[in-house]
Design brief:
By secondary structure, the protein is mainly β. The protein is built from no helices and 22 strands. The strands form five sheets. Strands 1-5-4-3-2 form a five-stranded antiparallel β-sheet, with no helix packed on it. Strands 6, 7, 8, 9 and 10 form a five-stranded antiparallel β-sheet that branches. The chain has a five-stranded mixed β-sheet with strand order 15-19-18-17-16, with no helix packed on it. A hairpin with a 2-residue loop joins β2 and β3. The chain binds beta-L-arabinofuranose. Beta-L-arabinofuranose binds next to β2 and β16.
Amino acid sequence: MDKKVVVDKAKQNEPLVTHIYTADPSAHVFEGKIYVYPSHDLVDDAVEVDHDGGQYTMEDYHVLSLETIDGPVIDHGQVLHVDDVPWASEKMWAPDCAYKNGTYYFYFPAKDKDGIFRIGVATSKNPAGPLKAEPNYIPGSYSMDPATFVDDDGRAYCYIGGLWGGQLELWQGGVYNPDGKEPAADEPALGPVVAEMNEDMLTFKEELQEISILDENGDPILAGDTDRRFFEAPWVHKHNGKYYLSYSTGDTHFLCYATSDTPKGPYVYGGRILEPVIGWTTHHSIVEFEGKWYLFYHDSSLSGGIDSQRSVKFRELTHNEDGSIQTMHPYEN
Ligand code: FUB
């Protein structure tokens, strides 16, 4: 579908749209509206489920928007296809979008022609696209799930990373090792990686560096602490001057957060945001709109639990007075 259509009215805790499967929502307020940049799950995804997410075979992206939180949702149609990205071969996974200097920068992961995940950029003057992909991926990029946070001072940071199919284990210390493995259970877990972006928003200003996530005693969260360690889906938002890094714990299916006084950390583990949803993956974004905070997330309820056919949903999120985030149960109001 290439044309813009109004599809559904938004309702908390219900699929934002039902005419296509959508996942991995990155929500932003641009030009006074909420824009959601999701993955687009395929309907006829009959690929066998594997440890590396082989079943997530997405090929293109749509953009959704809402003028009010309970208003009609517009699907702006297909804004980018893998065939329009010269360096990419497959797996158009979780994207994000940032605005700077009059341009929208859409960041997306895909496998290059050698099967290695890289991060690409496509640009537009309009938050709803269409998008024009850069001819090559961001030099020095690897792994997947990019999230780009533009701070109040205009500096932008790109957060990246995912274990297993996301290939983060293969890049420890920034060096590619096709045999790289997760650290042992009693060793520090791998953190997501971050780089400040150059003013052009197309290149990194520095090499990607790993973020530490510490426990309440200041010790690194260990790889065996699977209820709290980073797995994929990094997202950063700022609330009352504090940086919140939220992420999925993957095989234990929680959305968690950690806080810091600086964008690159170290971050200190804070707690759970969302208990497990129906479906293996859990992936989200957090956005402020008209004075309220919202969690955009996905689950597989609409498809009857098929992991690779997910639907974006949203619900209000509460920061407590002390800065902690209230834990939510996806099927309780
Ligand atoms: O949608 C494909 C992958 O599943 C994403 O990149 C991960 O975060 C997980 O949601």
